[in-house]
């Protein structure tokens, strides 16, 4: 019976939010300002998003969904390849 190298991948989705009033010429420009502040907070390892005008919100993250699990076949170098779907070994060949 062959041996397969597999990677089990668990993903947990988190969600948090904060409301801001951003002055800008367009909604897209406002989103860009907010995104830059969000990235600064993440790069600093912080949940406190601070806009250039001093507005701030602490983004409390909570799990939004149950964890998902997937399986990936690893190649000879240990690099991920094709996804694999488990099946009951008693089901026999597909």
Describe the protein.
By secondary structure, this protein is of the alpha+beta class. The chain has two domains: 1-15 and 62-87, no CATH class; 17-60, no CATH class. Helices cover 18% and strands 30% of the residues. It is built from one helix and seven strands, in the order E-E-H-E-E-E-E-E. The chain has one helix at residues 27-43, and strands at residues 6-11, 14-15, 48-50, 56-58, 62-63, 68-74, 80-84. The strands form three sheets. A three-stranded antiparallel beta sheet has the order 1-6-7, with no helix packed on it. A two-stranded antiparallel sheet has the order 2-5. The chain has a two-stranded antiparallel ribbon with strand order 3-4. It is elongated. The model has no long low-confidence stretch (mean pLDDT 87).
Short description:
By secondary structure, the chain is an alpha+beta fold.
What structural keywords apply?
elongated, 1 helix, 94 residues, two-stranded antiparallel sheet, alpha+beta, 18% helix, three-stranded antiparallel sheet, 2 domains
Main β-sheet, in a few words?
A: 3 strands, antiparallel
Total discrete domains: 2
- Whole-number mean pLDDT: 87
Spatial sequence of strands, sheet with the most strands: 1-6-7
Could you state the order of secondary-structure elements as H and E?
Answer: EEHEEEEE
Low-pLDDT segments, ≥5 res: none
**Number of E-type strands:** 7
How many helical stretches?
1
Distance between the termini: 17 Å
């Amino acid at each position: 019976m062959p041996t397969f190298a597999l990677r089990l991948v668990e993903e947990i989705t988190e969600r948090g939010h904060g409301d801001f009033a951003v002055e800008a010429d367009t909604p897209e420009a406002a989103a860009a300002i907010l995104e830059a502040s969000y990235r600064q907070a993440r790069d600093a390892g912080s949940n406190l998003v601070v806009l250039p005008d001093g507005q701030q919100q602490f983004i409390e993250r909570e799990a939004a969904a149950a964890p998902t699990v997937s399986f990936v076949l690893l190649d000879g170098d240990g690099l991920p390849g094709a996804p694999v779907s488990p099946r009951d070994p008693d089901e026999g060949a597909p």
